[in-house]
Amino acid sequence: MATEYLKQEGSDITSCLRDIWYETFLSWLVESEWGSSDSIPSMDEYLKVGMISIATHTTVLPASCYLKPSLPNSKLRPPKYEPLTKLLMIISRLLNDVQSYKKEKDEGTPNSVLLHLRNNPEANIEEAISYVGEMLNKKKEEFLEHVLMDDLTDLPKECRHLHLSCLKVFQMFFNSSNRYDSDTEMLEDIAKAIYIPPQIHSSKNYKLPGLVKAPVLGSFPTEANVTKCSAIKLFHGRFGKPSKNFITSSLSVRQRSVTYGNVML
C-alpha cells in the first residue's frame, strides 16, 4: 500500500501505516491481558482501548489515502486522529457491544454493557443496554454534524463520506443483532451486493423508455441449506463466478438508473 501511495502522491506513509497497526495490536494485547487476569477496567479505560481494538480506523484511514483529494499524511498519526475518525471508532465499538455482550460475558471479555451493570448493581440488562444506546445516539449526532458541516473539520468531503459509508457497514453488522458472527444472516445482503443486479420499478406517473428488467437469479437458499457453509463457498457453488456478460448487464442497469436519477424509481 505504501509503495502504491508513493507512486501516486510522491510521499512515503510506511511508518504511518505501521504505527496504526502497532496501536491496534497493542489494544488487542491489553484486552487479552484483561481477560486472562480477570481485570476490570473503568468505563473510560475500556472505551479508550476498545475504540482502537474495533479496528475501524485501520480500514478507513489507509483507504482515505487513495481518494482524490487524498487524506493528508498528518491525519494518519496515532493518536492525533480527527474528531470524525475518533467518533467513528467509538460508535463502531458501542454498536458491537450492544449486540455482543452475551458472547463476551461467556468469554470473560470486557464490554461497555457489562461494565455498566458491574458499576451499577441495581440496574438490569435492559437499563444497561439503554444507557449504552443513549451514549451511542449522542455520538452518532456528533458524527453526522462532522460529516455534513464543512466548518467542523478540514477533512475533504470525499474522506468524510467514506467515514459515513464505514459507519453504515457497521450498522449493517450490528444494528439489530450480531450479524457479523452469523453464518447465514448476511447471505442475502451479500447476494444483493455481488450477484443480483438492482431491480428497477418505475412509478405509475413516469414511463421510462429503454429500461430492461434486471435478471433475477434463482431462489435464495434457505437457512437450513446453508448450515456450516461459508458465504463465499455457498455463492460460488450455487451461482458460480460472475461472467463478463453478467457484469456488463449489471453495469448497464446501474447506468440507466443514474440516467434517470431525478425520477423516483
TrEMBL record:
Keywords: Magnesium. SUPFAM superfamilies: Terpenoid synthases. The keyword Magnesium applies. The keyword Transmembrane helix does not apply. GO terms for molecular function: magnesium ion binding; terpene synthase activity. Gene3D superfamilies: Farnesyl Diphosphate Synthase. Pfam families: Terpene_syn_C_2. GO terms for biological process: diterpenoid biosynthetic process. This is (E,E)-geranyllinalool synthase. It comes from Morus notabilis. The lineage of its organism: Eukaryota, Viridiplantae, Streptophyta, Embryophyta, Tracheophyta.
